[in-house]
Amino acid sequence: MKIQQLIVGMMDVCCYLVSCEKTGKAAIIDPGGDEADILAACKKSGLEVLYLINTHGHPDHVCGNGPLKQATGAKIVMHRADVLFFNSSEARSYFAQLGLPESPPADILVEDGDLISIGEESLTVIHTPGHTPGGICLYHAPDCFTGDTLFVGGVGRTDFPGGSMRELSHSISERLLTLPPETTVWPGHGYGGSKSTIGKEGRSNPYL
């Protein structure tokens, strides 16, 4: 699987273009703005975008869904719990304060263990609630896209509506740190660095 990391939007989201090298079929993970740059990168690599996958429903990670869906015809993918939560009046009112565009409705609702096929490759959905109720990570050995669950030297915030430090800690310890230590961590923001490994985070992340 080929991976391209782009830093996009007003909140410097790590957006990923993941693609099958044999077929050119691809998914965009967390399109958080700068849609023209994302499309240009896809065009340069000759990618056919099948999915827009959101690791969670926060506006900075979904604000590019609408323009990119219109441009590519790709289907929006999100965990069922975040679709339900971010459609609630509480969440819509709170996160509207950021002033970012809302996402169109998700086309595909995923659950823990689901596979998202991209050509001859696939991503496994790992449900990791805590940052949001429906937060997910996406695993394709030896890579894991951790969204805002796990950063390099940090973890996601839990003080937003829908957050839970207890759930986040459990998700990281039971769902992520149990992956092979050589697994590459591709975070949702590059606060502490653009990538790491599960083994390094387990040993040195001060929040774990």
**Strand-residue proportion:** 25-35%
Q: CATH topology, what is it called?
A: Metallo-beta-lactamase, Chain A
Radius of gyration: 16 Å
Overall mean pLDDT stands at: 96
CATH class: Alpha Beta
Number of domains: 1
So, CATH architecture?
4-Layer Sandwich
Q: Count all strands and give the number.
A: 14
Order of helices and strands: EEEHEHHEHHEEEEEEEHEEH
Structure description:
With 208 residues, the chain is of the alpha/beta class. The chain has a single domain (2-204), classed as Ribonuclease Z/Hydroxyacylglutathione hydrolase-like (Metallo-beta-lactamase, Chain A), CATH 3.60.15. It is built from seven helices and 14 strands. It has helices at 35-45, 59-62, 65-72, 80-86, 89-95, 165-176, 198-204, and strands spanning 2-8, 13-19, 25-29, 48-53, 75-79, 108-110, 115-118, 121-127, 136-140, 143-147, 150-151, 154-155, 184-187, 196-197. β7 and β8 form a beta hairpin. The mean pLDDT is 96.
